[in-house]
Design goal:
It is globular, with a radius of gyration of 27 Å. α2 runs parallel beside α5. The longest helix is centred in the middle third of the chain and has 19 residues. The protein has 2 domains: 322 residues, Rossmann fold (3-Layer(aba) Sandwich), CATH 3.40.50.150; 86 residues, no CATH class. The protein is α/β, with parallel strands linked by helices. The protein has 12 helices and 24 strands. The strands form 7 sheets. Strands 1-22-2-21-20-3-6-8-7-19 form a 10-stranded mixed sheet, sandwiched between helices. It binds S-adenosylmethionine (SAM). S-adenosylmethionine binds next to α2 and β21. The site of S-adenosylmethionine (SAM) has 22 residues, from α2 and β21.
């Protein structure tokens, strides 16, 4: 196992409720509830029969992707017994700051020549409660100086702590946020994953211009990329070269073939290894100080035979790097080429929908076919839809009924979508939140990090 080195001292963000009165850090509330399958979508009679046979013979039923309707507060702890350490990739786009995150905007088709109308579904009771849990601050708490942001960070910390537990040792997480809370979320992520777990802040340009009077237009969002250990999965992605880049970089054109190329160095940093000579066209050469030759003598001879080694006037050898053999430019952390999907096949009408192109990059970079991808704020189902297309397994969750409806419909629009189950936590979740909402706080059992107590 390849873990990050430990960290000893680190600046810390403190929010209201982080520590109890004895100075112990409060661990997230864990209430495990049983999932109930309300529907199996797209399953043939034969597949259903096979699943039943497998489970009645004591074998694991064949994997089914899962669309779960519920609050992440109950869904994540309920996933832990089965999935702790088993999720390969997590993408989350948590709600931030506006009730829009719990609303659904839809366009109704035109009727008898009328204009199409747009309506917004207001948050349901459950959604309103989640909204209050995330941002609500009572008058009493406000008097104590508690800010909305404290509530949000607490909620965010609880989500991230549990998501980390769900990840495999080589798993990673992408957390999509923007200027509202991104800068608060970063220290929380550092705390949960350790500062070495941080890999990138990806800046995604979501739109060309935004009218923000008397300040610069906010056109970008951030995606924080963290890994659970140094052995995280990584598949380099490439973007196509721009014409300017090709003209600038691949300047030379090979006589006879017309192939474009540039001359790349044949050396690499030596990192303290003793220098060794190599022979180029019968002449022995030492590498420049601090470097070593990148290839063995056999490989160099082979490249020379293929006419791929060129020496400059100074006698320094280089290798021809052809344009037609180059995979493109390794993806950098500034993403300006993934437009927001305004229309077309992927547009669902869900207000906060993200483009599939974004998820495609993330899923291809940090997972392989068959891996398990999780999104516990799935909204319109972008993560599930892309995971399905890329042949990954997936679990998607949202507390909004319209989110589940939209995701289900979207998945059914994918040709050959594999059967998936729609689940909820049934009456248990409703009971839980009724207790949390209406009963005195003494009935809530809280698990603290090293002990269990009732406050
Ligand atoms: C910003 S949207 C996600 C959009 C999504 N990435 C997409 O492409 O459509 C956030 C989602 O989180 C859901 N949500 C908010 N609080 C939640 C909670 N406590 N548990 C589960 N889902 C929640 C909202 O219903 C909303 O659909």
């Amino acid at each position: 196992m390849c873990v990050f080195p430990p960290f000893l001292v680190m600046a810390e963000l403190i929010w209201d409720g982080k520590y109890d009165e004895h100075g112990h850090k409060r661990a997230p509330v864990r209430i495990e509830l049983p999932f109930q399958t309300v529907e199996t979508v797209n399953e043939s009679v034969q597949q259903r029969q096979r699943t039943l046979e497998l489970s009645s013979s004591g074998h694991d039923a064949e994997w089914r992707n899962r669309l779960i309707w519920g609050d992440k507060k109950y869904v994540l702890p309920s996933l832990l017994p089965e999935f702790a350490g088993k999720v390969d990739l997590i993408y989350v786009d948590p709600p931030f700051d506006t009730s829009q995150d719990f609303s659904f905007v839809a366009t109704l088709p035109a009727n008898n020549g009328d204009d199409a109308s747009i309506f917004t579904k207001e948050p349901s009771l459950l959604e309103q409660k989640a909204y209050r849990d995330t941002w609500g601050v009572s008058r009493e708490a406000r008097d104590r100086g508690v800010q909305q942001i404290d509530r949000y960070i607490r909620w965010f910390y609880e989500s991230i702590s549990m998501l980390r537990e769900l990840l495999t040792e080589n798993g990673s997480i992408y957390v999509h946020l923007d200027w509202h809370v991104g800068h608060y979320a970063k220290p929380v992520l550092d705390e949960v994953f350790g500062p070495n777990g941080f890999l990138n802040e990806i800046v995604w340009q979501r739109t060309g211009a935004h009218n923000d009077p008397r300040r610069f237009g906010n056109v970008a969002e951030s995606i924080f990329f963290y890994a659970k250990s140094a052995a995280y999965k990584w598949n380099t992605q490439y973007t196509v070269y721009s014409d300017e880049y090709i003209q600038e970089r691949f300047r030379s054109v090979e006589e006879g073939t017309g192939r474009r190329y540039w001359l790349n160095t044949l050396t690499a940093p030596a990192h303290g290894r003793p220098p060794k000579t190599a022979s180029f066209f019968g002449t022995k050469r030492m590498p420049p100080p601090g470097t070593m030759w990148r290839f063995t003598q056999d490989k160099i001879d082979d490249l020379a035979k293929q006419n791929r080694i060129v020496t400059t006037d100074s006698g320094m050898p280089y290798i021809k790097q052809y344009l037609d053999e180059s995979p493109g430019r390794p993806l950098q952390n500034l993403w300006t080429d993934v437009p927001m999907s305004k229309s077309g096949f992927e547009r669902t009408g869900y207000a906060t929908q993200k483009p599939e192109g974004l998820l495609e990059r993330i899923i291809k970079t940090s997972s392989d076919e068959g891996d398990l991808v999780l999104d516990c704020f799935c909204g319109s189902g972008t993560t599930a839809a892309v995971a399905e297309r890329l042949n990954r397994r997936w679990i998607a969750c949202d507390l909004g009924r319209f989110a589940i409806h939209t995701t289900r419909k979207r998945l059914l629009g994918i040709a050959d979508v594999k059967p998936f189950v729609v689940q909820n936590l049934g009456k248990y979740e409703r009971q839980q939140w009724q207790v949390a909402e209406f009963a005195p706080s003494s009935s809530t059992v809280i698990f603290y990090e090293n002990r269990r107590t009732s406050p």
